[in-house]
Amino acid sequence: MNDGVITDKEVYEFFLAADRSVYLSFLHELENALQRYSKNPSIIPHRIKGTTPSHSTIHMYMPVIDDVYSGVKTLGFNVNSNLGFVGSINVTDADSGALYGTLEAKQVTGIRTALASCIGLYHQLTKYVGVSTINLTVFGAGLQAFWHIMCSIQLFKGHCEALHVRVLHRSNPMDVEPLMKAVSTEEDAMNVTVEQFLLSNAKAVRECVNSSHVIFGCIPSESPNLHYKDLSEFPTSVEHTYVSLIGSYKINMHECDEDMIKQFQNQGSLIIVDSKEHTPLESGELYDAMISPENLLEIGQLAGTKSPTIKCDNGRTLTLCKIVGLSIMDICVSKKLLEISNTL
C-alpha cells in the first residue's frame, strides 16, 4: 500500500493474502461499527443523490459522522461508460475533520458486504459442530460472490475439514483460480472444492440449495432465485442453514420468494438486517410483506442474543439475513486498512 490513494488492486491483494486472524479482526471491527449505528442511527445522515447538469452521470454522497468512524463514500454511475459504479472512500479524523486517507471503493464495497454477511454466520458457528464438510452455495459469480467465498473459507477454518462451494451463475462462471491459489498456499489450508452451475439449470439449483449449510445471494434480481420449498419440502441431512442475501438495492428486487418471508412472520422469528430503517425500503421481499421494525433484528444487536431461526417441514432450521449496505461499513473497513497501511 502507498502513501496516496489506496487502490482496488492493493485492497484485493491484501485480503487475498490475509489469514483467518486478519479476517476476524476486520469482522469484529465491523460488528463494533454496526453496534454503534444500532445505538445511534443518526450517525449516518441521509445520502445526497443528484445528476450532473448534462444528465450523463448520477452521483451519490454517503456520509458518516461519528466519534470513531467519520468520512464519506462517493459513487458515480454513467450508463455509457461501461464502468459500473465508480467511487472513493474518504476517511476523516473524527475530532478535527482532517483527511485521514482515501481509498478506491470497488473492492472495499465487496469485502465489507461479505464481512457483514458473515457476522451472523460467525455467531452461529456452534450450529455446525460435528459437520466435517460444509456445503456453501453462492448465487452469483462476481466480486461480491468471490469475497463471500473467501470470508467463509477463513471463517470455517479450524471448524470443519472441508468446504464444498457451488457457484450458481447466469452466463459466465467465476474465475476461481486466484481463490484456489490463495487457499492452497496457506500453511493451515483447508480442503476447498468448487463446482459451478448455470442458474437456468433448475435441477442443479434445487439440489444445491437443499444440501446447503450456508447460502449467499449476490445477484440483483427482480424475480426470486431462492425458493423456500427447495429448503423445506425435500428430505435433507442438513440440520441448519444460514442464508444471507445482499443483491437487492431497489424496491422492485426480490432475491427470495414470499413464502420464505411469510414463514418468519408466521413463526414469529426475526429476520437479521443491517438497518431496520433502510433495509425494508430497498428490499422488495420485505417491502411487499409489509415487514415492520419489530420483525427485524439488526446485526449490531446480535451480540448476546439468541440467533433467530425458523423450523422447516423437513426438520431443518433456517436463519435469514438481508443486507442493503451502510456507509459506516465502508468507513470502518477503510479506516482499519489505513491504520494497517501506516505501519507498513
UniProtKB/TrEMBL annotation:
- Transmembrane segment boundaries: none
| InterPro entries xref list | NAD(P)-bd_dom_sf (IPR036291), ODC_Mu_crystall (IPR003462), ODC_N (IPR023401)
Q: Which GO terms describe its cellular component?
A: cytoplasm
Q: Which family does it belong to?
A: Belongs to the ornithine cyclodeaminase/mu-crystallin family.
What is the name of the protein in this document? ZYBA0S06-00760g1_1
Which species is this record about?
Zygosaccharomyces bailii (strain CLIB 213 / ATCC 58445 / CBS 680 / BCRC 21525 / NBRC 1098 / NCYC 1416 / NRRL Y-2227)
